[in-house]
Amino acid sequence: MKNYWKLLRLFCELSTTLKLAHCVSWILLFFNWFFLRTNPFETFVRIYKRMSDFVPTYYLRKIDDEMIMYIVTRTAKFTPFQSTCLIKTLTAKMLFQNRNDIQLKIGVSKINGFEAHAWLEKKGETIMEQNTRNSWIPLWTY
Q1: Partner of 18 at 20 to 30 A CA spacing, among 28, 67, 68, 130?
Q2: Up-side HSE of residue 112: CA atoms within 13 Å toward CB?
Q3: DSSP track, 31-96
Q4: Tens digit of pLDDT for each residue in 123-133?
Q5: pLDDT (tens digit, 9 = 90+) per residue, 31-66?
Q6: Does the predicted TM-score (pTM) go above 0.90?
């Protein structure tokens, strides 16, 4: 069993910027999970694009890319729902909203039946949600 008091103490020791980043990440994870479950994908994409413009990311300028991805991955472990690769990459892309060099990709594979996967790429290199299989066929890029 996890020692939540210890985790809470560690959270309280973080800087204000990192605390804010964790909280916003958790809210965005929930937002993405909820709206993916309750809307068709086309509707979700419209909502996602509008919401991305309202996410306050000015405080993230002091945090490097690896730390943002770590925060999203770490925060995803403390949600009451299963955070899939899609939910985590959508959240990270929202936090990278003004970064055109980072792309979110959603792809499929038919090697072991029909499977889907989402990942982030920067200059052609996978930076989040790496998967060892190279046979993913991208269907959607944002």
Answers
A1: 130
A2: 4
A3: HHHHHHHHS-HHHHHHHHHHHHTTS--GGGGGS-HHHHHHHHHHHHTTSSS---HHHHHHHHHHHT
A4: 877 777 766 55
A5: 999 999 999 989 988 988 888 878 777 777 778 888
A6: no
